[in-house]
Every structure is written in structure tokens, then in C-alpha cells.
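Q: What would this chain look like folded?
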Amino acid sequence: MALLAKGCALGAPPALPVARHASKPGKAFPEAHGRGVSTAHAAASTVLAAGIVGKRRMARKTAVRAAPPLNGRVTVDEGIRSDFPALQQEVKPGVPLIYLDNAATSQKPKQVLEELNRFYSQDNSNVHRGMHTLSMRSTEAFETARQKVAKFVNAPDSHEIVFTRNATEAINLVARTWGAANIQKGDEIVLTVMEHHANLVPWQLLAESTGAVLRFGQLRKDGTL
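A: My prediction, written as C-alpha cells:
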């Protein structure tokens, strides 16, 4: 979450690690002046990465089988969970898979997987790039989806809906277009201390290029803002 504001009085930004990830493969972001990666942050990142790799290796060795509903009854949450094939696994006997890494990659419900399979089996073609049957069907489906999203978010016009590949690309698009055109020296960009790296780097770069100031909302002891 990023909030762009003028004259917002928040505390000074905490020390943050340098953003080194690239928006494109092989192209690194420049270092933020006067900042460095803390030993603690680097160690924590290493431990986290090692844990993720270890869990993935363990998952490969674990047989995939449906986790039984709790107490033999299906709740609303379990009903929704049942839509996701990847979540119908047990990491070990009696322990269902609990997936919390949706900020990086979300699991796909069976309805989406089925539609993707149908599309690639029947309609696979470039959108807006041909007059043949498959391209026209793909274009119609694409624009229909745009109209449905516009209606769902109450957008005045479907042309205001822009599809991107993921949230990271969308955030960079906003920062490098709207942000570059509107943010000025002295403006404040408000983030939280719990931001994913993808929602920190674009604003760091924008602040450095425009002279804007980054401010960070703190967390309460219970983890809320």
C-alpha cells in the first residue's frame, strides 16, 4: 500500500536496506545514497530463503492427497479452500498444507485452471493482432473481461482498466508514469514498515529522482497499522 500526500506529518523513515532487485532481468536498480544492507536483514533473508527452499524440497517428496475437513464438517472457509487443487495436500500425514506466500505468487482456483486449459486448447491467439477466428474470439474475451472488471470496481469507463502481468509490474507502472508526472520535491510518499520489496523499491527510486520524502507508518504490537 502506498499513499501519496502533501504535508503529511508522520515519523521519520526508519533505516531500510538498499533496493537491489531489478525490474527487468539482469538490470539492477541503483543504490540509494547513504544506505546499506544491515547484517541482521541479510541474515534474516538468508534464513528465510533457506527455509523456503527446504520446504519446497520437502513438498516434492510429499505425496499429494486431499486433507480431510475438520471435525467431518465443511465450513465456508473450507469450501473456498476446496476450490484450490494445490491446497488439497498434506505436508505430512494429518497436517494440511497452509500457504501464506500469496504476496509473491497466489495459488489458482480450479475454475481458473479449467478456463486456462480451455483457452489454450481452443482459443489460443494474440489479442488485437489478427482478424482470424481465434484472434477475434480472444480479443472479444479480453475486452469482455475488461468491461466486467470496470463494472466491478465502478470505473467510469472500461478504458481505464489496464491489465498487467502482476502487482509488481502494476506498481512500477504507476510510479514511473503517474508518479513521475505528478510527484514533486517536498511531496511525501507514505508507506508502511511491512511493505513487500516490490512496493518499496519503485517509491524509493521515485523519491530519489523527484526529491520527494518517504514516510513510514509503524505497526502496533498486535501487527495492525
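The mean pLDDT is 78.
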